[in-house]
Specification:
By secondary structure, the chain is mostly beta strands. It has strands at 2-4, 14-19, 23-25, 30-37, 43-50, 53-58, 66-68, 85-88, 97-105, 112-122, 131-133, 144-150, 159-164, 167-168, 174-176, 180-182, 187-189, 191-197, 207-216, 220-229, 238-244. The protein is built from no helices and 21 strands. The model is unreliable at 4-10, 233-241 and 243-258 (pLDDT under 50). It comes from Drosophila busckii (Fruit fly).
Length: 258
């Protein structure tokens, strides 16, 4: 007897919650949780699948109760796994996939409930904050600004955004380029251009600030900012790098990963 997890769930055995993080970082670890309510029944088994292939099984009456099955990209930490959770180590790009938990009750009903979630392993940019190129140390009204922002190789590709004096640049002044794919792991390099004619409004107290932000979902945010002068004696541009790289960066203003 199979019961799907839904709003009008009526079977005795039920899944309370399946916790599968949508994004995790390459090289790290993760715990996948499968919380269930037996409602008086006895547990027969808990099984975990990745892309339809079983990699972990927990049967209370077996000795030992937990066992694993070899699968590329899946390294189970048996010592920290149980009926309610499975711990995965050494995540790599092959670890990306659809994970499904299946809980079954004992005889005679053998009720089964199942739910899944998708997990993506992210390879963060490998060259620090994004790089700004093509800028000049000084601009006059009427000059053209032509600069590019390049992010380090990652997977998936990062989102890039340009800011002019702290304000998000209009899409009409952006120049989008094809993503560059390279290496055995097909890592992606993102480049976003900025092109506009300088007007008086672009200078704030004689300076113009151009900032590029690179982000991935809510856990990666880095920026570079170039400050240039208006019609004054030439001065070398000031290059600043403001970095924010945390599990839950609340100050990310770029769009989340698609």
């Amino acid at each position: 007897m199979n019961c799907e997890l839904n709003d009008d769930f009526t079977c005795g055995l039920r899944l309370v919650e399946v916790r599968i993080p949508p994004y995790v970082v390459k090289g790290g670890s993760v715990q996948l949780e499968c919380l269930y309510d037996l409602d008086g029944e006895a547990l027969y088994s808990v099984k975990w699948y990745k892309d339809g292939n079983e990699f972990y099984r927990y049967v209370p009456r077996d000795n030992p109760p937990a066992q694993t099955f070899r699968l590329p990209g899946v390294a189970v930490d048996l010592h920290n796994s149980s009926d309610a959770l499975v711990s995965l180590l050494n995540l790599n790009l092959q670890s990306t996939g659809r994970f499904r938990c299946e809980v079954s009750g004992e005889a005679p009903s053998f009720q089964t409930v199942t739910q899944h979630g998708d997990m993506n392993v992210v390879s963060l940019p490998d060259q620090g904050p994004p790089k700004i190129s093509g800028g000049r140390p000084r601009y006059q009204i009427g000059d053209w600004v032509r600069v590019n922002c390049t992010a380090g190789r990652s997977k998936p590709a990062v989102n890039l955004s340009w800011y002019i004096n702290g304000e998000l640049a209009d899409s009409q002044v952006l120049r989008k380029y094809d993503t560059i794919v390279s290496g055995r792991e097909s890592l992606e390099t993102t480049v976003l251009g900025l092109k506009f004619r300088v007007e008086q409004q672009h200078f704030r107290n004689g300076d113009m600030k151009l900032k590029c932000v690179a982000s991935l979902s809510t856990f990666y945010w880095r920026s570079n900012e170039e400050s240039v002068e208006g019609d004054r004696p030439q001065k070398a541009p000031v290059l600043e790098s403001r970095e924010s790289e945390s599990a839950f960066a609340s100050n990310s203003r770029a769009d989340p990963v698609q």
